[in-house]
Design brief:
Distance between the termini: 40 Å
Strand content: 5-15%
Strand order of the largest sheet: 1-4-9-6-7
Helix content: 25-40%
Order of helices and strands: HHHHHHHHHHHHHEEEEHEEEEEE
Number of helices: 14
């Protein structure tokens, strides 16, 4: 009997296997809260790691690879959108009822409701029980007919016949009145009809309003389609709409209108000029007030944390907006909107800048977050300038300038690596987002198949290949210097099936502000796995004064012409726990 790791370790029964990513992480279907997804993945992986030293270590490694793949796929907005679309299609196909063996006759349609028609009531169709005169006579005769055991002859009475004749005459007269031309069919009046108003006014003191000028046109009435348009992209409510109301069934033509960039540039230069002007106007003999450095530092830490949180929300909403446009236009097979959305995604992934065609709501949110940050910095700089601490004030101006342009929205992505899965097409002889130190690095798509997506990293024809990417973590400086910021790296490595196999190695270095001194490092060592993609992961507390992180991919060739140490599904993210 084979060992069922899904059931034994994660409680997933056989009927739910193989599980989808959400079932594997034990979270709700189509959960979109990134914190919930990340916490669930960490919890499941920590539980499975407890079985690595037991008799089922191979099953543990296989399950860890699946959990890591699910985590990476669901934390990346573009990958999650593609996965969710495919999962919805599979679930919809599974819920369709199977076709029956023999065709059944469709049920007859319900009979149409008869419309009321004004027709006369004929005397012959009136039941005898309706006649109040005939009913007592019939009962009486039937009861008395068997009296004394023999039938009695019914006496001829003329008054019932006279009643019937009178009733018939009344019906004939009613029929003539009913069918008279110009008569109003009262019986066919709708239930909500109101009687016509008379010309007389029973309340002389209440006069009706004067009639409108017939030449004055009445305002046009919008149809239902026009009355449910999304909010204007320039309004504050547009950001919430873009995040929650851009459904998968929303066509591209219903998306908010786009506008040119109106993002204000950072005003650190203006702060420096105002600082110099204030220092020049300060009396030389005036006693400087004391500056509360601790209070200023606490104020700036909070301001930078709020700025990071707000900009991450804008970045998440922007990525969701782009992915929804791609998904919607692909489903509707509209080539123009699809190409525009894909171009927006490629441009955003390559340089991280706010797309020029992005709705103005995103730009306004980013500009507001930047203005709030600059307002706090201006207060701190003014306080240092008033205390004649020009060095501290100048340092704050430089620090604000290092926080960068708010249009560089890509710096606030939760995934800090650019092009982490080599999904972007090569530009010239290089791979977007990465720097080749050694070897002609390129993108490969098969033999072996990718761990995820459509491509992965290949060193090419070289004895040793090295590919690096530097990550700016200045935005996390307050938490880093307080000893509270952790970062997590995950990735997959594999080698071509040959003897001896080439090796793959991943090094993650934590560096200072000059990007020259290594404060700490995580090194996977050479790995040669020719059978499957092997997970490499590391989570650690960033050393104080860390401002840069360098990710290095190092492959070494031991046989063949090409260096076949592969990499795919890389990820580097900031975590709070």
């Amino acid at each position: 009997m084979t060992f069922d790791a899904y059931h034994k370790w994660l409680g997933i029964p056989a009927e739910d296997q193989p599980p989808n990513h959400y079932r594997l992480l034990a979270i709700n279907l189509f959960e979109d809260d990134l914190d919930v997804i990340e916490s669930a993945a960490d919890r499941q992986m920590a539980h499975v790691r407890t079985f690595q030293g037991g008799p089922h270590s191979a099953d543990s490694q296989k399950l860890l690879n699946e959990l890591s793949a699910a985590k990476i796929s669901l934390l990346h907005p573009q990958k999650r959108a593609a996965y969710d679309a495919e999962l919805r299609r599979q679930l919809a196909a599974a819920q369709e009822p199977p076709p029956s063996a023999a065709p059944t006759q469709p049920p007859l349609p319900p009979a149409p409701r008869p419309q009321p028609v004004a027709q006369p009531v004929r005397p012959a169709l009136v039941p005898a029980a309706v006649n109040p005169l005939a009913a007592p006579e019939l009962v009486f005769e039937r009861a008395s007919a068997m009296r004394n055991g023999r039938p009695r002859r019914r006496r001829n009475s003329g008054w019932p016949l006279a009643g019937v004749a009178a009733l018939s005459a009344a019906l004939v007269v009613g029929y003539l009145v009913w069918t008279k031309p110009g008569a109003e069919p009262i019986a066919l009046a709708p239930p909500n009809a109101r009687p016509a108003k008379t010309a007389t006014n029973p309340r002389p003191d209440l006069q009706p309003p004067a009639p409108k000028d017939p030449e004055t046109p009445s305002p046009p009435t919008a149809d239902m389609e026009a009355s449910v348009q999304p909010p204007d992209a320039s309004s504050d409510a547009a950001a919430a709409f873009l995040k929650t109301e851009v459904r998968e069934n929303s066509p591209p033509d219903r998306l908010p209108a786009v506008a040119e960039s109106t993002m204000p540039k950072p005003s650190a230069t203006g702060l420096a000029e105002s600082l110099a002007e204030k220092a020049a106007n300060e009396p030389a003999n005036a006693p400087p007030p004391a500056a509360n450095s601790n209070a200023i530092a606490a104020m700036l830490v909070k301001a930078k944390a709020d700025y990071l949180r707000d900009m991450q929300k804008v970045c998440d909403s922007l990525e969701t907006y782009i992915d929804k446009r791609i998904e919607s236009s692909a489903r509707r097979r509209t080539k123009g909107p699809f190409d525009a959305a894909v171009q927006m995604r490629v441009a955003f992934d390559q340089d991280g800048r706010m797309p020029a065609t992005a709705p103005s709501a995103f730009k306004q949110k980013a500009a507001k977050a930047r203005a709030d940050l600059e307002r706090t910095y201006r207060t701190a700089i003014d306080e240092y300038a008033s205390a004649r601490q020009s060095a501290s004030a100048a340092a704050l101006v430089e620090e604000l300038n290092r926080l960068g342009d708010p249009e560089q929205i890509g710096r606030f992505r939760r995934e800090l690596l650019r092009n982490p899965g080599c999904e972007q097409p090569p530009q010239g002889s290089g791979i977007p987002g990465w720097t080749a130190i050694k070897g002609p690095w390129q993108r490969r798509e098969k033999d072996p198949p990718p761990q995820e997506g459509t491509g992965y990293f290949l060193p090419g024809d070289c004895a040793e290949g090295e590919l690096v990417q530097d990550i700016d973590v200045e935005l996390y400086a307050p938490r880093i210097d307080s000893g509270k910021q952790k970062f997590e790296f995950t990735g997959f490595v594999r080698s071509f099936k040959q003897q001896p196999p080439d090796t793959s190695r991943i090094v993650v270095e934590y560096r200072d502000s000059s990007n020259s001194k290594i404060l700490d490092a995580a090194d996977s060592g050479p790995i040669a796995n020719v059978d499957a993609w092997q997970l490499v992961s590391d989570k650690r507390l960033a050393p104080r004064e860390t401002r840069w992180v360098r990710v290095r991919l190092i492959s070494t060739r031991y046989g063949g012409r090409e260096n076949d140490g592969y990499y795919d599904g890389l990820s580097f993210r900031a975590v709070e726990k």
